[in-house]
Design a protein that fits this description.
seven-stranded mixed β-sheet; 16% helix; six-stranded mixed β-sheet; alpha+beta
């Protein structure tokens, strides 16, 4: 019996299964909420009505989305580099016009993601575009059954010149951030959550589980702080949005805020971090 891709209607996580999966590992994890009405699944055939959207959010940085969104509504980032286009995180689904646009750009020389909440339809990009590298931190391989990891990464890994993955830990043991050294952007995954008022950042938070409001521990915050202190940036991108200006100084101030007291998972107003 062939394996088929199924997306969880509650969170959008894709898995390959014989028939409808018995459960979703992302939803049963402590970081997420269970579906109130039980399990329901979507297949690629069910998404024939979805359309693609993409937009350049910074020079050489394009976000890809499907509309209507599925699951958590993740963004698939594509970054132009001297070596060719690199994909980071995955849109929830890639309609045919999105795949055609990526082929027009020459495909992808590498693909990676911060952690399972940002995987989206990485399996689809691998099946359709066959990038030579699909990089995920070695500590998070348990979440990658929908695709094949061709390069398990350690604490530091260069996807392309000036584009470096760093293990941050915290939210997940193998959680990684991507530092675009040339553009001064940190693709933070769920190391940070950015609260927006329209397009304007107004608050920052960090968490082990946002829905359950479980904060990071002090040691996890110290580890993240030590990493961020080494990375220069003036903007951040999560699996959901691009946010500028959010600076290294403000992120360090957020970590210092939590290290001085009982840590919380909720947002701290940005005006308190400047």
């Amino acid at each position: 019996m062939p394996l088929r891709p199924y997306s969880c209607d509650n969170c959008g996580h894709w898995q390959r299964w014989f028939a409808e999966p018995p459960s979703c590992p992302v939803c049963t994890d402590v970081r997420n909420a269970l579906p109130e009405d039980g399990w329901a699944w979507t297949t690629p055939d069910d998404l024939a009505d979805r359309t693609a959207r993409w937009a350049e959010v910074a020079p050489g940085v394009t976000g890809f989305w499907c509309e209507p969104q599925i699951g958590l509504g993740t963004t698939g980032w594509v970054l132009e580099t001297d070596a060719g286009p690199v994909g980071w995180e995955g849109a929830g689904f890639y309609p045919p016009e999105a795949l055609a646009e990526l082929r027009r750009r020459g495909g992808l020389v590498a693909l990676g993601a911060s952690h399972v909440h940002g995987y989206g339809a990485l399996w689809q990009l691998q099946d359709e575009l066959a990038p030579p590298v699909l990089a995920i931190d070695v500590r998070d391989l348990a979440w990658t059954k929908a695709f094949v990891v061709t390069w398990p990464t350690d604490a530091r890994h260069e996807l392309a010149p000036g584009l470096v993955m760093h293990r941050s830990g915290g939210h997940f043991p193998g959680h990684a951030v991507l530092h675009d050294e040339r553009r001064g952007i940190l693709f933070v995954g769920d190391l940070l959550k950015v609260d927006l008022d329209g397009d304007r950042p107004v608050g920052l938070s960090c968490h082990k589980a946002y829905h359950a409001q479980i904060p990071l521990s002090h040691d996890e915050i110290r580890e993240a702080r030590a990493l961020v202190e080494r990375l220069d940036f003036e903007a951040v991108a999560t699996p959901f949005e691009f946010a500028a200006p959010v600076t290294q100084k403000q992120v360090l101030a957020l970590f210092d805020h939590h290290l001085g007291r009982q840590p919380l998972a909720g947002p701290v107003p940005l005006e308190e971090l400047t």
